[in-house]
């Protein structure tokens, strides 16, 4: 038995060896013989009729190989970019699903919509030619906000989508909610905006496509979180390429956050074009291009009402939301503000009746889809904000009102009125832990110290739960999923006992190569360094749904665990034969197979050797080799959650909010690698703080121009915005995943925006401020203080 | 980026000649502003004339009543200069607040002043201190140099060689950083001389400007309280997605008070 590094250890990340020494292999690092350069020509208008494209000058430009447009796509009878979810309204009428051509046809519907693809010998030549393309646009008025888009007389994106409403979706018992509201002692109301976000992974999207005429095979290298899904969606539904003739590789990918978990038009265009020009083509997005083409996130306008009895018990919750879909339906688009939002409105509370209506709306903006948290941060924000509003209106302490309504630990499994059943949890335990860790007891002292400097200090809570580990396929299918959501893993034991794992999830920063190796090391008793994890290549990995929705460990890790169990089971059969014992008497422990109660023993390496050199082997009943595969389809979502406490200081003179303390106590189930979990929590929290205080994608109504189109105008959170965070776990074990894991990729982003905004509102509550929309920028805070007619700060 | 020719002259007159003889040629100093614009294809000069080989444009000299900073002196050098820190600490502080370390190591005072970005920091220091812009052909007073949004008094082929700063009795700079870009959303430079006070504001409008009522008030009483009640007019100030004009106007007063505080500390 070698250097086992198992569950609960924090080894340094395996993948960092190559990343920290500059040896990563990203799409834009790859060079293919004879490679050409592709550039997309994008619409500068938010909304326009495409009257014609004159290619002649571009085609005559030096080095140009081809110029392709929507007409060429139509002539080749290629499919529309598919949407992976089909939702329906209350009457069962399916959502409106207008085609999403990979290059615009007839009309452009957002700034950045692709109108042509120019291929040349070099990127410079392709760029120069792109500037020579003459596109005749008849510019139409754009509509970018959801409230504006559903108004009578608003510009219509599609002839057959009246009022731009894609689907009028609902969930919950409307009548029960109405009855409860009639009996309520108090009703809290809140209108809010969940700001639109841009994902900004550090590596921009990129793709290379190549066609080999000898084998009639295509290869697409792409910055994707789910290469097998791209192979399926693009091959089967867009380009008509048989699956066995299409290889999709997603090598090292520099961050995704959801932005890279969609099938993008660029992937389809470049793959199709590679065969047309019979040369490999590379496209690498610029950061600016990413701003107008990477799918955006969030963008809700919501009215919420919470009904309470005289003791502050929640009786019913009603939420009406308008959710922005952008100009077309992206891969998961309509699923995010509906199925990943409504079912989370119960939170960690016992609210007996919930009703949620979501109008999913088209606008002249980049398509909106999943971004870290996806639907669940929006739900958490509405709920955790209105709980604070209710507490303040009823004069109940904010912690106390949460306690009065929290699901007690003993009540799990807990069925909510909005579909989901929580298997496990202890929200009260997380709250208690966080109160201590955040030193809430002495907050008054700190507040007084701030006041003496002329600053307002506030504390904010967010006790939340989310649903992840996407997803039980049967359940998802009922909600409109058009695919399965299981995961697969192959454990290949080599004749010498080392292990290669082929897994369908994709590692783009999460540390899977380390976490998954720890699982194998622990279970098989093999050395940590003798386990390699292979992912991201449809030719090497059997199948997979990829990485998103905090599913990799929960679903992929479960598949891996099961495949490992199968290896052990087969090993026992081999050991029984070699040790001349009954299979039931064979034990496997710490990397050794032994006969119970004896000193007869065979090491894992010996068993692996015997499997591949089957001279003394039960060939009549057992195949040689030691390689096992498992597919795992979860029986339920997992429900991580916890309590986040933010502490802020507001400078009333400038309106600046400074985050001064941050505490998170999260229940993520079993922790495989505490260091990696801590990193995921840190990163997630920072992204949530970004939404709360800094980030905002702003479009100009009318022209549809993206005003926050670069890092100079779109404010990302930075290291100096953050205090040292206190993060800890308070775990209950998931009852249905093999290792009790729940997932931790998104919790930080889900819990934090509400905690931060609740803290800001608390800091300003004495001035009558009851709500602050995100991001809580200095200008916005100053404006609130003006309206609250703050006495001029003395100096 | 489109292809361009590249020249690296050794003498100022050679540089000036290249600029006047090649149409659509551009000086490049630190390149922190120019190179990104070329990469985004917003500018496509046919030739770049690089000032980096002109040794005479680098360095900081003490002339007693004035300090002269060569046009090619990077922000980081100004920020770290003992001389500037002692004689005009507010100016060293201003340089230390520009961008990030990479930008401060490459970006130059000449490039910043020539570019006259409405949110750049140096224009506030140059105007606030009443400095003189020394060019290849003449001396230009700061009050005559900045002509609004990216506009200056520089003529084609004219090269800034240095900026000459009078040493004030006291000076301070206070910057409210724009959240994303960290340029000045509003930056105020305040300088007290024997014959009066100068107050210069950057970031708030289309170009750097002075605030005479604050100058009068501070000349009488160089204390933040003297200007606490002075509000500047919103008219003509910038409104954008980061800040509305009235908020910028408010910040001018706040930052001016803080600049005085900084000058006094
Ligand atoms: C990320 C980032 C953050 C930044 N943040 C700030 C900030 O917070 N505050 C701030 O003030 N600035 C900021 N800047 C701008 C930075 O200070 C630049 O360095 C400066 O504006 C230009 O200086 P440069 O030497 O790089 O000039 P270049 O980019 O080389 O040139 C700029 C312009 O000036 C002309 N020019 C250059 N030198 C001369 C000369 N001697 N005579 C005549 N014309 C000349 C050039 O032809 C060109 O038109 C930032 C820049 C970046 C990239």
UniProtKB/TrEMBL annotation, chain A:
Gene Ontology MF term list: iron ion binding; oxidoreductase activity
Name of this chain's protein: Xanthine dehydrogenase family protein molybdopterin-binding subunit
Organism: Bradyrhizobium cytisi
Domain named Aldehyde oxidase/xanthine dehydrogenase a/b hammerhead: residues: 21-141
SMART domains, per the entry: Ald_Xan_dh_C
Family annotation (InterPro entries): Ald_Oxase/Xan_DH_a/b (IPR000674), Ald_Oxase/Xan_DH_a/b_sf (IPR036856), Ald_Oxase/xanthine_DH-like (IPR016208), AldOxase/xan_DH_MoCoBD1 (IPR008274), AldOxase/xan_DH_MoCoBD2 (IPR046867), AldOxase/xan_DH_Mopterin-bd_sf (IPR037165)
Keywords for the protein's UniProt record, in alphabetical order: Molybdenum, Oxidoreductase
Record Pfam families: Ald_Xan_dh_C, MoCoBD_1, MoCoBD_2
TrEMBL record, chain B:
PROSITE patterns membership: FAD_PCMH
Cross-referenced InterPro entries: CO_DH_flav_C, CO_DH_flav_C_dom_sf, Diverse_Substr_Oxidored, FAD-bd_PCMH, FAD-bd_PCMH-like_sf, FAD-bd_PCMH_sub1, FAD-bd_PCMH_sub2, Mopterin_DH_FAD-bd
Domain of life: Bacteria
Gene3D superfamilies on file: 3.30.465.10, CO dehydrogenase flavoprotein, C-terminal domain, Uridine Diphospho-n-acetylenolpyruvylglucosamine Reductase, domain 2
FAD-binding PCMH-type domain residues: 1-170
Keywords, sorted A to Z: FAD, Flavoprotein, Oxidoreductase
GO MF annotation list: FAD binding; oxidoreductase activity
Signal peptide feature range: none
Protein name, as recorded: Xanthine dehydrogenase family protein subunit M
Organism per entry: Bradyrhizobium cytisi
Organism taxonomic ancestry: Bacteria, Pseudomonadati, Pseudomonadota, Alphaproteobacteria, Hyphomicrobiales
């Amino acid at each position: 038995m070698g250097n086992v590094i198992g569950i609960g250890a924090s080894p340094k990340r395996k993948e960092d060896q190559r990343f920290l020494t500059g040896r990563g292999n990203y799409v834009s690092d790859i060079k293919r013989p004879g490679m050409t350069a592709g550039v997309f020509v994008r619409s500068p208008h938010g909304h326009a009729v495409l009257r014609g494209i004159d290619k002649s000058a571009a085609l005559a430009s030096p080095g140009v190989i081809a110029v392709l447009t929507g007409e060429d796509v139509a002539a080749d009878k290629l499919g529309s970019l598919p949407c992976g979810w089909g939702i329906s309204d209350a009457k069962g009428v399916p959502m409106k699903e207008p085609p999403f051509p990979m290059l615009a046809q007839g009309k452009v519907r957002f700034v950045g919509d692709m109108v042509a693809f120019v291929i040349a010998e070099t990127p410079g030549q392709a760029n120069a030619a792109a500037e020579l393309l003459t596109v005749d646009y008849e510019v139409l008025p754009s509509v970018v906000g959801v409230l504006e888009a559903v108004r009578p007389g608003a510009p219509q994106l599609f002839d057959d989508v009246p009022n731009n409403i894609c689907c009028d979706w609902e969930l919950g018992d409307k009548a029960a909610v109405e009855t409860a509201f009639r009996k309520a002692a108090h009703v809290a109301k809140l209108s809010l905006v969940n700001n639109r976000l841009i994902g900004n992974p550090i590596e921009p999207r990129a793709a290379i496509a190549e066609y080999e005429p000898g084998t009639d095979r295509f290869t697409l290298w792409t910055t994707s979180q789910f290469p097998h899904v791209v192979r399926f969606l693009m091959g089967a539904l867009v380009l008509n390429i048989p699956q066995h003739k299409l290889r999709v590789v997603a090598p090292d990918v520099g961050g995704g956050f959801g932005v890279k978990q969609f099938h993008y038009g660029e992937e389809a265009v470049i793959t199709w074009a590679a065969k047309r020009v019979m040369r490999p083509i590379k496209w690498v997005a610029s950061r600016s291009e990413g701003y107008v083409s990477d799918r955006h996130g969030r963008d809700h306008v919501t009215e919420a009402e919470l009904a309470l009895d005289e003791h502050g018990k929640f009786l019913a919750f009603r939420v009406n939301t308008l959710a922005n879909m952008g100009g077309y339906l992206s891969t998961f688009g309509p699923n995010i503000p509906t199925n990943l939002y409504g079912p989370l409105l119960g939170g960690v509370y016992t609210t007996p009746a919930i009703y949620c209506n979501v109008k999913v709306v088209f606008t002249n903006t980049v398509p909106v889809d999943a971004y870290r948290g996806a639907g669940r941060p929006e739900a958490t924000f509405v709920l955790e904000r209105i709980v604070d509003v209710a507490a303040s209106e009823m004069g109940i302490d904010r912690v106390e009102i949460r306690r009065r309504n929290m699901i007690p630990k003993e009540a799990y499994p807990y069925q909510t009125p909005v579909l989901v059943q929580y298997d496990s949890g202890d929200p009260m335990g997380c709250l208690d832990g966080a109160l201590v860790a955040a030193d809430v007891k002495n907050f008054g002292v700190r507040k007084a110290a701030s006041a003496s400097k002329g600053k307002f200090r506030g504390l904010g809570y967010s006790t939340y739960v989310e649903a992840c580990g996407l997803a039980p396929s049967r359940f998802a299918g009922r909600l409109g999923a058009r695919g399965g959501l299981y995961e697969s893993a192959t454990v290949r034991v080599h004749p010498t006992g080392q292990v290669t794992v082929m897994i369908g999830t994709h590692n783009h920063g999460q540390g899977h190569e380390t976490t998954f190796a720890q699982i194998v090391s622990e279970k098989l008793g093999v050395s940590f360094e003798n386990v390699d994890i292979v992912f991201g290549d449809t030719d090497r990995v059997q199948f997979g749904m990829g990485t998103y929705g905090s599913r990799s460990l929960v679903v992929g890790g479960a598949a891996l665990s099961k495949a490992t169990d199968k290896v052990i089971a087969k090993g026992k059969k081999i050991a029984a034969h070699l040790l001349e014992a009954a299979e039931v008497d064979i034990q496997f422990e710490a990397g050794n197979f032994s006969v119970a109660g004896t000193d007869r023993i065979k090491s894992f390496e010996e068993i692996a050797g015997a499997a591949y050199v089957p001279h003394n082997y039960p060939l009549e009943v057992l195949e040689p080799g030691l390689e096992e595969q498992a597919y795992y389809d979860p029986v339920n979502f997992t429900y991580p959650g916890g309590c986040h406490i933010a502490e802020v200081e507001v400078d009333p003179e400038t309106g600046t909010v400074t985050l001064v303390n941050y505490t998170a106590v999260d229940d993520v189930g079993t922790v495989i690698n505490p260091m990696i979990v801590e990193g995921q929590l840190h990163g997630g929290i920072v992204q949530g703080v970004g939404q709360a205080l800094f980030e905002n994608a702003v479009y100009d109504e009318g022209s549809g121009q993206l005003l926050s189109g670069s890092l100079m105008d779109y404010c990302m959170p930075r290291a100096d915005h953050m205090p040292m965070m206190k993060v800890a776990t308070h775990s209950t074990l998931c009852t249905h995943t093999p290792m009790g894991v729940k997932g931790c990729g998104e919790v930080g982003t889900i819990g934090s925006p509400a905690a931060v905004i609740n803290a800001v509102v608390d800091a300003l509550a004495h001035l009558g401020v009851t709500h602050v929309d995100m991001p809580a920028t200095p200008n916005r805070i100053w404006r609130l203080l003006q309206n609250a007619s703050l006495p001029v700060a003395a100096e | 980026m489109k292809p361009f020719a590249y020249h690296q002259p050794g003498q100022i007159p050679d540089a000036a000649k290249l600029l006047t003889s090649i149409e659509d040629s551009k000086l490049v100093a630190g390149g922190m502003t120019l190179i990104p614009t070329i990469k985004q294809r917003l500018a496509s000069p046919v030739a770049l004339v690089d000032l980096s080989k002109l040794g005479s444009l680098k360095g900081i000299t003490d002339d007693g009543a004035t300090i002269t900073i060569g046009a090619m002196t990077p922000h980081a050098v100004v920020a770290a200069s003992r001389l500037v820190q002692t004689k005009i600490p507010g100016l060293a502080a201003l340089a230390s607040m520009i961008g990030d370390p990479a930008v401060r190591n490459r970006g130059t005072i000449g490039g910043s002043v020539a570019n006259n970005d409405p949110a750049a920091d140096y224009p506030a220091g140059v105007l606030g201190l009443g400095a003189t812009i020394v060019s290849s052909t003449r001396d230009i007073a700061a009050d005559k140099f900045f002509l609004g949004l990216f506009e200056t008094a520089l003529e084609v082929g004219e090269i800034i060689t240095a900026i000459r700063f009078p040493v004030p009795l006291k000076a301070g700079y206070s910057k409210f950083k724009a959240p994303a870009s960290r340029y000045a959303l509003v930056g105020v430079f305040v300088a007290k001389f024997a014959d009066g006070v100068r107050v210069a504001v950057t970031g708030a409008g289309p170009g750097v400007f002075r605030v005479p009522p604050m100058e009068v008030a501070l000349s009488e009483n160089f204390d933040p309280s003297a200007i606490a009640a002075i509000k500047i007019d919103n008219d003509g100030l910038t409104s954008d997605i980061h800040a509305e004009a009235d908020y910028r106007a408010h910040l001018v007063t706040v930052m001016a008070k803080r600049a005085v505080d900084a000058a006094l500390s």
